[in-house]
Design brief:
Strand content of chain B: 15-25%
Number of helices of chain B: 9
Strand content of chain A: under 5%
Distance between the termini of chain A: 28 Å
Radius of gyration of chain B: 20 Å
Order of helices and strands of chain B: EEEHEEHEHHHEHEHEEHH
CATH class of chain B: Alpha Beta
Structural class of chain B: alpha/beta
Largest interface: A-B, 23 and 30 residues
CATH topology of chain B: Rossmann fold
Structural class of chain A: mainly alpha
Number of domains of chain B: 1
Distance between the termini of chain B: 50 Å
Number of domains of chain A: 1
Helix content of chain A: over 70%
CATH architecture of chain B: 3-Layer(aba) Sandwich
Largest sheet of chain B: 6 strands, mixed
Oligomer: heterodimer
Number of strands of chain B: 10
Shape of chain A: elongated
Number of strands of chain A: 0
Shape of chain B: globular
Strand order of the largest sheet of chain B: 6-7-8-3-9-10
């Protein structure tokens, strides 16, 4: 555990001493702010529109923040994560190989699993911080509106799990190469594939269809955004994170049996 | 202290290092000498547990490099060809990080770093960022990280390459000071370096050991340069005659 924390501590420090972290975080929050503003503006317009037609009855009262603001906001944030997470994780292994510090790590009396877990912890913490700071939108809504808090929290938990899954995939991509661009592109391609893998599900038949749907990040995330936290989704996210982390460990270890 | 026997590393068909054997005693500085591409770095990487050998074995401080790799790693200080530095760290925070990696106990971290900084003459720059250090200082930090956990064996891959003459002299005398009762293996292709710092010479050419001898014994009759050139020439001749022999023999065998 001490070794994992040693690795994670150095990694986090290096994330925060490079400008990348600040650029990524600023960009993420800027985009999220823009989404939030527009969704709120649209919501406001809808409420005004519906309440001006007496004939519609109580339609305006049935418009709810969770469905019209929080859900689309979370979905948009997931798309932004899809793009920025590979940029955060791309350096983790690739940079070490380029600097030659990879040799230092692998000639130290620590396991490759500990190295990988340390890096997962560091990048995961960063992505967690980034998502947490976007929690300001939820807080604003709770102060001036009345969203369902449980659904809101489930959605944010879903976003965090999506973020961690992307981190695990990004680390794997980074462990394959010493070129950061390649690491980021490979990471992006894998995460994007997982995002859209369910597209042909409707025409893929009775067996393949559900399989593709279960594999898609979006299906599980969508459920959590709607407030449904099922065991199947939790198992999906945790097995994704564990599975990609395992592959990363194998990839790092492979230098020892190649 | 170090015993290498029949260590081999193959990449596909090509053998980077083939069946090499040598020994190093406690307190000895062994010069690992050979032309570029002779297999020096590969051998060192196998000893430090970075690369696994294809076959053969070696023990460091009594532990086998394949089966007891972590025990070996704990006892080795290793300076690769380019010092493994994180440019955004300060000298002290970097050394603390390495000490923790190498398993120095929490309460002794400070002491270990202070000692490494003092011994390698980094006291004046201990708060500077590594990216701002000159090449000579970086090399010293490289040495400092190699000794921070007080290892029994030091493995230095071309520690003076790319330095100016004054820095070379400093690093050499540093290596001699660091010896103590440690075993040091130092690779180089610079002959005077061996003559000035080492007790024992292992000459390697195209992945094979050409010569293993005490420096004093080897240079008793003629200077190291002559010995080195003669041995390499003889080895190359040997190789060619073997190849000719193989080439002459195989067509006949095929028929």
């Amino acid at each position: 555990m001490r070794n994992v924390l040693t690795i994670a501590g150095r990694e986090l420090r290096s994330i925060f001493t490079s400008p990348v972290a600040y650029v990524v975080m600023t960009g993420f929050l800027l985009l999220c702010g823009w989404f939030f503003f527009n969704l709120i503006a649209r919501f406001n317009m809808l409420v005004q529109m519906y309440s001006s037609y007496e004939a519609m009855g109580d339609t305006a009262g049935r418009l709810n923040l969770n469905e019209f603001v929080i859900a689309p906001l979370l979905h948009n944030m997931a798309v932004v994560l899809l793009i920025v997470v590979p940029m955060i994780t791309m350096r983790s292994f690739a940079e070490e190989k380029r600097l030659g510090t990879y040799e230092l790590l692998l000639t130290s009396p620590i396991g490759t699993g500990q190295i990988v877990l340390g890096k997962l912890l560091a990048s995961g913490t960063f992505v967690g911080l980034m998502i947490a700071s976007s929690g300001i939108f939820g807080i604003i809504l709770s102060i001036w509106g009345n969203p369902e808090i449980g659904v809101l929290l489930a959605g944010y938990a879903g976003l965090l799990l999506v973020g961690l899954t992307f981190v695990a995939i990004g680390l794997f991509a980074s462990s394959l190469t010493e070129n950061q661009i390649i690491a980021s592109v490979v990471g992006l391609v894998i995460t994007l594939l997982l995002f859209v893998i369910a597209w042909p599900a409707d025409s893929a038949g009775d067996i393949l269809g559900p399989v593709l749907r279960h594999l898609a990040v979006t299906e599980h995330f969508d459920q959590m955004v709607r407030g449904i936290v099922s065991t199947s989704s939790l198992v999906y996210f945790f097995s994704m994170i564990a599975g990609w982390t395992f592959l990363t460990q194998r990839s790092v270890e492979s230098i020892r049996w190649r | 202290m170090i015993e290498v026997s029949n260590l081999t590393k193959r990449y596909g068909e090509r053998a980077a290092v083939e069946a090499i054997s040598f020994k190093a005693e406690r307190g000895q500085i062994v010069g690992f000498l050979g032309p570029n591409g002779a297999g020096k770095t590969t051998t060192m990487r196998m000893l430090t547990g970075f690369l696994p050998p294809s076959s053969g074995s070696a023990t460091v401080a009594g532990f086998d490099i394949s089966t007891q790799a972590d025990e070996v790693r704990r006892r080795i200080g290793y300076l690769p060809e380019t010092p493994p530095l994180y440019p955004e760290m300060t000298v002290r925070s970097y050394l603390t990080f390495v000490a923790r990696l190498k398993g120095v106990a929490r309460g002794k971290l400070r002491e270990a770093c202070d000692r490494a900084i003092e011994r390698t003459g980094l006291t004046d720059v201990h708060g500077r960022l590594l990216r701002h250090l000159s090449k000579g200082y970086r090399q010293r930090v490289g040495l400092a990280q190699a000794i921070v956990h007080d290892p029994e064996v030091l493995i230095l891959d071309e520690p003076t390459v790319g330095l100016d003459p004054r820095q070379i002299i400093e690093i050499r005398s540093l290596v001699r000071e660091l010896r103590g009762d440690r075993t040091v293996i130092l690779s180089t292709h610079i002959l005077p370096e061996v003559a000035q710092t080492c007790d024992k010479v292992v000459i390697i050419n195209e992945g094979r050991i050409v010569c293993e001898d005490d420096l004093a014994h080897l240079t008793a009759e003629s200077p190291l340069e002559e010995v080195f050139m003669r041995l390499l020439a003889a080895d190359t001749r040997d190789r060619e005659s073997r190849l000719d022999h193989d080439a002459g023999a195989s067509p006949a065998g095929a028929v």
